[in-house]
Amino acid sequence: MVAKAGTRLESALRAKGDLKLVAYMMAGHPTAKRSIDVGKRLAASGIAALEIGIPHSDPLADGPVIQRAGKVALEHGMTVSGALDVAKAVAAEGVPVVLMTYINPVLSYDPRKFSAEAAQAGVAGVIVPDLPIEEAEPVTGWLRSAALDTVFMVAPTTPPDRISTICSHSSGFVYCVTVTGITGARKELPEGIPALLKEVKSRTSLPVAAGFGISRQEHLKALKGNADAAVVGSAIVDEIERGGDGVSLVRELLKACR
Amino acid sequence: MSRMTLTHPVDGRFGAFGGQYVPETLMSALQELEDMWHEAKADPQFQLELAGHRRAFIGRPTPLYAATRLSEHFGGTHIHFKREDLCHTGAHKLNNAVGQALLALRMGKKRIIAETGAGQHGVAAATVCARFGLDCTVYMGTEDMHRQSMNVRRMKLLGAQVVEVKSGSKTLKDATTEAIRDWVTNVRTTHYIIGSVVGPHPYPEMVRDLQRVIGDEAREQYLSLDGKLPDVVVACIGGGSNAIGIFTAFLDDREVGLVGVEAAGKGIRTGEHAASLVGGRPGVLHGSYSYVLQNGDGQILPTHSISAGLDYPGVGPEHSFLRDIERVEYVAVTDKDALAAFKLCTRLEGIMPALEPAHAIHHAGVIAKELGPGGSILVCLSGRGDKDMDSVDGG
Ligand SMILES: Cc1ncc(COP(=O)(O)O)c(C=O)c1O
């Protein structure tokens, strides 16, 4: 028996005095080969986990930076199966990998096959931003039976009772969306975030990761003590778009996490 | 099973289709919308107000019109038009926009967003915002802003901000995606008036409830005219709102054939079309599970139709259900045939239809030839064609 993947993600993301950092990148951005390269470097940069996005033609929850990355990846031929290959190559470095994908590519691929192949690739968990808990079955059933963690999102507009239900559907960690809106770096995070994180923390024993809009040391300082982990997406994808790998940004941000 | 279709949706689904595939951020707004809509629907005061606006602002009931010269041209089958082109602003879209604006007022939301393809829904949204003093932002693809430029000018005159959408195929799909992103960001202050029976629950149900007035009126008008029902009811399908609007009243009349007409563009086999029910397979687009034009990897495909209002890779979930239970037949008509029907109807009836219902008129001709002189067809003439002058001259 393999150790339960959930356990791995859960322990990787739990803050122990520090704040853990999760990086996001898009599979196939700008090419499959280059994204594997970037992924491996990010894996060794001190992050606690890596989110790998599967590109979609109509990413409802994403701002311009991630939209562009997805478009480039698709133009360069990235597919669901190609993204699983990228995930496999990067997961081999030992970093817990979480796939972030919209629901339609998964439905089209077949959720059962997707779950099995993701598990085989060494993926730890899956986040589907357009799959609220009401629509979660049967997809999450397949994910769970492949021992993959199912990470659900809580938003600033989620009522308290619903937060508990979302937490009870989640494993690995709970993703707390920090802005009412789509992905993309923001100058400042909204005021109510510590209160929202506190509310979520009080309703689950899972680690809680904050994400959307996070790009600066000040953001991380404000999250430390309130969240277990912070997800940095558009800021890293922006660096990858410019030909970089995001590693220096990660190192910079990690200073504010300790 | 006789009333099965009318009691749908159950838990937000029409059979397997529908649902709410949206970011968590929108879930409480959708719940609020559903509660508010059911409350408003049951409130006699709301219904009275809606009826008043339908009469004096939209101009309802719209007439049932006997298209005698077209009937003769097609071999003698009786063809009638339900004249939604005579609605204020020129299309059925205002039926929905008025109802949703009243709902926005009830929810205390002062900012309205909308997506538009042909510009008819954008104009309808801008119109109700002017009428009720609401702030209006309309998302429209670059390509549609060019081919429906008159409607862009109308929206601006009505006080709406028109946001150009340059992503993807620069048409209705991309405008809808962008409107949803705006809604995710401004959901606390903003109501999103979706223009068709698409999107997450409760939109497909709510827009149907607001558009079914088309068929409710037409069925009564037809009965009092003829003492019987038409053999076939035909409507064009973009997202499917005028079609659901006219079909709903006839769903239980099993003897009445219902036909939805999609856009075959340059021909289904060329891949350049917008016929999701004829040429697609089930998937998720814009928050609901329905027939979608997608590639083998679940990516949404670019579409083509001469008609901006039909140029959309998805369709309302209730149509997917009606297709699978075989209550409605879905077919597709090419750009070329739609253009010819546009010209024919204009010359024979003195009625210039929009390119969208021109697809339905062409197919009415096909059915008329099968039915012969004793037959009867009711066509939903969903809008008028002034907006399409440029496309028609070019074609
Ligand atoms: C006149 C007219 N008919 C039909 C449509 C297609 O929409 P639906 O299928 O929702 O009726 C449009 C859309 O813009 C339209 O303007």
Characteristic terms for this protein:
heterodimer; A: 258 residues; alpha/beta; 9-stranded parallel β-sheet; 12 helices; disordered N terminus; B: 395 residues; 6-stranded mixed β-sheet; 4-stranded parallel β-sheet; 17 helices; 45% helix; globular; binds pyridoxal-5'-phosphate
Protein model, in words:
Chain A is of the alpha/beta class. Chain A is built from 12 helices and 9 strands. In chain A, helix 2 runs parallel beside helix 4 (80-91) and helix 6 runs parallel beside helix 7 (139-145). Chain A is globular, with a radius of gyration of 16 Å. Mean pLDDT of chain A is 95; it is low at 1-6. Chain B is α/β, with parallel strands linked by helices and 395 residues long. Chain B contains 17 helices and 14 strands. In chain B, the strands form 4 sheets. Chain B has a 6-stranded mixed β-sheet with strand order 3-4-14-9-10-13, with helices on both faces. In chain B, strands 7-6-5-8 form a 4-stranded parallel β-sheet, sandwiched between helices. In chain B, helix 6 (120-132) runs parallel beside helix 8 (149-157). The model of chain B is unreliable at 1-5 (pLDDT under 50). The A-B interface holds A 56-58, 60-61, 63, 67, 71, 74, 79-80, 102-109, 129-132, 134-135, 152-159, 162, 166, 177, 180-182 and B 19-29, 167-168, 173, 177, 180-181, 184-188, 283-287, 292, 294, 296-300. The complex binds pyridoxal-5'-phosphate (PLP). The site of pyridoxal-5'-phosphate has 21 residues of chain B, from helix 6, helix 12 and helix 16.
